């Protein structure tokens, strides 16, 4: 039973992609970089090339981190659905299979200025 | 053994009540915090009307406690003469 | 009030029987099923409603008498507060941020609880239960009213109080408390009782009210001490009602156990998430602190919650599923929240700030295993950014949890260096969560939670991402209600007026 109810009950999903005027939500998170208190939310057209997301809105948001300047996107390890992921920077979000409300994580081993020494 | 507790506002009305609780529960520990008093006791705590009346110098209805009560912990049982807090273990 | 104890014709137990159970009747021309249609669908089996009894045995006549006395005490002090420049007697105006959060998020919760108890007082068949729910419904609306009234005095002098009703409906952090109550109110009467009466009142409100009110006293806030204690004097009765109801369900039928346990698991976790904001109030927002969040958790969580669940073990109840994860979060959550509130302070109708060196020394002493290691380096960097003239504002809106609706600021239970990522797919839609606890709750009743109105995504779906339009919509006055306390109008006014109050120049 998908909800405890008196009779059959079907909910309407509130955040479906149709409600975003042709855009979609993408969540991005830099592993072990907790200066940013929570994963970042962007709202973008699905046709946006992946590399443009990194160079544009994401780069602007990450400025405050002391590791931002040393970030080398060609060496970053990616996760989608919490599994390894190999995005093509020249292709769009949609072509990379990045759907509405997907969470992308990226890792930069060795680059963790504000993290406590283990 | 688990602790039961009762916390009362710190004011003129509760001063004799706290004294009475101390008299009836020698094992209780009275913690005085800003604006409140929290009384802890191992397993069980009894508040007796008669003892409060002796300390207060007037007749007392145990339900008057409601006015100055802040919080409590434990299973409650109340009648005319006593309010008991206890854990079953 | 004259409190003479009059000679009673009836004993307390007898009086309780006459003034509660004797008010009920057996219906003649309608079936009980038709009159009480909502008591069976949740699966709880009750064989004898008369077995439920209020252990305080409070009857309506006594209730009115004592509540009237509480109101008289309350208004005497509120008047004194307003007449004696009570708004200048605070330790520091930073303290007001805690009050603003309380007014925007918690007081509306009291009103929601009022509606809920009024409803279940009608839906439960037992007379004892009906009377107790009626009293609680009246208590809760009294709490909402007295809190709003007490804090209205601060609204004359300080920012952030003026639009609490819009904040309640629209701003992002209040949706956490609102969704908690909406979730409870859209459940059946028994689940509502576990949600509010048991988990919230019994297991968690001590953590909210007791240190908070004591903290108000410590920080010179007479208005809040007064409404707090006036409300809290009802809470002991509410907690007792919650505990009695849970014991009643467990004693009525063994089949009730797994349902009740499931609700305890769910509502402990939902309540724990709501109280996360309280951890920040205690550790960061009280200029003079009574105890740390960790110390309060030891007393009211570990010791008192532990005692409760050892007591309920005789029915087969075990501690809530999220208990261990909660324990692992205690030394981290207030810091994680405050760092979030500071970087998103452009969107809050209260101020936050970088803790001072003294504050950090205190935090380091209270959290020896976590603060210096994980959180001090972040604050130190944020302080540098501010000194360099580039104060840290995180305009990347936060991912919210689909269940608790908090920004996902929490880390893995075993790894405080890594954000906790949990997700699921339901009917082709992806949903994100802050924790296993919240994901489990969603997966148990997905049709409910897919409807959640999440304020951050709504900024894009409803306002096209226009932050200025959003501020207008939530009645947030940019540059006055929000941002760093340092340099705020509240800070300037408090210093200026306090100076006027203590000198003749």
UniProtKB/TrEMBL annotation, chain A:
Organism superkingdom: Bacteria
One Gene Ontology term of the molecular function aspect: phenol 2-monooxygenase activity
Pfam families: Phenol_monoox
InterPro entries found in the cross-reference section: Phenol_hydroxylase, Phenol_hydroxylase_sf
Protein name: Multi-component phenol hydoxylase subunit gamma LapO
Organism: Thauera linaloolentis (strain DSM 12138 / JCM 21573 / CCUG 41526 / CIP 105981 / IAM 15112 / NBRC 102519 / 47Lol)
TrEMBL record, chain B:
Protein's UniProt name: Phenol 2-monooxygenase subunit p2
MF GO annotations: monooxygenase activity
SUPFAM superfamilies on file: Monooxygenase (hydroxylase) regulatory protein
InterPro entries: MOase_MmoB_DmpM (IPR003454), mOase_MmoB_DmpM_sf (IPR036889)
Top-level division of the source organism's lineage: Bacteria
UniProt keyword annotation of Methyltransferase present: no
Organism the protein comes from: Thauera linaloolentis (strain DSM 12138 / JCM 21573 / CCUG 41526 / CIP 105981 / IAM 15112 / NBRC 102519 / 47Lol)
Family, similarity comment: Belongs to the TmoD/XamoD family.
Pfam families hit by this protein: MmoB_DmpM
Automatic annotation (TrEMBL), chain C:
InterPro entries cross-referenced by the UniProt entry: Ferritin-like_SF (IPR009078), Phenol_Hydrox (IPR003430), RNR-like (IPR012348), YHS_dom (IPR007029)
Membrane-traversing stretches: none
Stretches assigned to the YHS domain: 412-453
UniProt cross-references to Gene3D superfamilies, sorted A to Z: Ribonucleotide Reductase, subunit A (1.10.620.20)
Keywords: Monooxygenase, Oxidoreductase
GO MF entries: monooxygenase activity
Protein name per its UniProtKB record: Phenol 2-monooxygenase subunit p3
Species in which this protein is naturally found: Thauera linaloolentis (strain DSM 12138 / JCM 21573 / CCUG 41526 / CIP 105981 / IAM 15112 / NBRC 102519 / 47Lol)
Organism ancestry: Bacteria, Pseudomonadati, Pseudomonadota, Betaproteobacteria, Rhodocyclales
């Amino acid at each position: 039973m998908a909800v405890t109810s008196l009779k059959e009950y079907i909910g309407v999903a509130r955040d479906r992609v149709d409600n975003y005027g042709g855009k979609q939500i993408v969540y991005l998170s830099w592993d072990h970089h907790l200066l940013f208190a929570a994963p970042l939310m962007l709202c973008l057209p699905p046709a946006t090339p992946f590399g443009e997301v990194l160079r544009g809105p994401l780069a602007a948001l990450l400025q405050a981190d002391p590791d931002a300047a040393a970030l080398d996107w060609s060496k970053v390890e990616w996760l989608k659905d919490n599994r390894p992921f190999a995005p093509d920077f020249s292709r769009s979000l949609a072509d990379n299979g990045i759907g509405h409300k997907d969470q992308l994580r990226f890792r930069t081993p060795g680059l963790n200025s504000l993290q406590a020494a283990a | 053994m688990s602790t039961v507790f009762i916390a009362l506002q710190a004011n003129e009305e509760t001063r004799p009540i706290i004294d009475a609780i101390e008299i009836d529960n020698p094992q209780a520990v009275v913690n005085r915090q800003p604006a409140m008093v929290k009384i802890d006791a191992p397993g069980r705590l009894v508040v007796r009307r008669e003892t409060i009346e002796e300390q207060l110098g007037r007749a007392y209805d145990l339900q008057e406690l409601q006015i100055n009560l802040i919080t409590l912990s434990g299973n409650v049982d109340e009648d005319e003469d006593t309010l008991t807090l206890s854990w079953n273990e | 009030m004259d409190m003479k104890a009059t000679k009673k014709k009836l004993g307390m137990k007898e009086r309780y029987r006459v003034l509660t159970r004797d008010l009920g009747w057996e219906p003649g021309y309608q079936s009980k099923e038709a009159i009480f249609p909502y008591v069976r669908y949740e699966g709880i089996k009750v064989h004898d409603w008369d077995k439920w009894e209020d252990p305080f045995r409070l009857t309506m006549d006594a209730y009115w008498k004592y509540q009237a006395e509480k109101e008289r005490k309350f208004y005497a002090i509120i008047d004194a507060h307003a007449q004696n420049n009570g708004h200048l007697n605070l330790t520091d105006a930073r303290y007001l941020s805690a009050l603003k959060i309380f007014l925007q998020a918690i007081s509306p919760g009291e009103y929601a609880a009022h509606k809920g108890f009024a409803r279940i007082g009608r839906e439960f068949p037992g007379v004892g239960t009906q009377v107790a729910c009626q009293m609680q419904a009246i208590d809760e609306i009294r709490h909402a009213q007295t809190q709003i009234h007490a804090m209205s005095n601060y609204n004359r002098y300080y920012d952030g109080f003026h639009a609490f009703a819009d904040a309640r409906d629209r701003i992002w952090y209040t949706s956490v408390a609102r969704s908690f109550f909406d979730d409870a109110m859209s459940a059946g009467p028994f689940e509502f009782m576990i949600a509010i009466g048991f988990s919230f009142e019994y297991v968690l409100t001590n953590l909210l009210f007791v240190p908070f009110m004591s903290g108000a006293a410590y920080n010179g806030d007479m208005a809040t001490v007064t409404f707090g204690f006036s409300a809290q004097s009802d809470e002991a009765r509410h907690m007792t009602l919650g505990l009695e109801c849970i014991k009643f369900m467990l004693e009525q039928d063994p089949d009730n156990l797994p349902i009740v346990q499931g609700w305890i698991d769910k509502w402990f976790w939902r309540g724990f998430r709501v109280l996360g904001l309280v951890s920040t109030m205690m550790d960061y927002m009280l200029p003079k602190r009574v105890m740390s969040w960790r110390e309060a958790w030891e007393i009211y969580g570990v010791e008192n919650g532990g005692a409760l669940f050892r007591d309920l073990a005789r029915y087969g109840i075990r501690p809530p599923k999220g208990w261990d994860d909660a324990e692992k979060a205690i030394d981290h959550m207030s810091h994680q929240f405050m760092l979030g509130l500071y970087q998103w302070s452009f969107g809050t109708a209260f101020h936050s700030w970088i803790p001072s060196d003294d504050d950090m020394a205190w935090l380091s002493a209270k959290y020896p295993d976590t603060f210096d290691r994980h959180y001090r380096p972040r604050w130190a960097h944020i302080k540098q950014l501010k000194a360099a003239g580039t104060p840290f504002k995180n305009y990347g809106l936060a991912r919210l949890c689909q269940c608790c609706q908090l920004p996902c600021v929490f880390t893995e239970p075993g790894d405080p260096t890594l954000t906790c990522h949990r997700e699921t797919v339901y009917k082709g839609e992806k949903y994100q969560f802050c924790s296993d606890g919240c994901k489990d709750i969603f997966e148990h009743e997905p049709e409910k939670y897919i409807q959640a109105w999440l304020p951050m995504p709504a900024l894009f779906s409803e306002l096209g991402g226009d932050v200025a339009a959003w501020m207008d919509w939530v009645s947030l006055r940019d540059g006055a209600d929000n941002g760093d306390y340092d340099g705020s109008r509240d800070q300037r006014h408090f210093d200026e007026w306090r100076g006027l109050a203590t000198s003749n120049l």
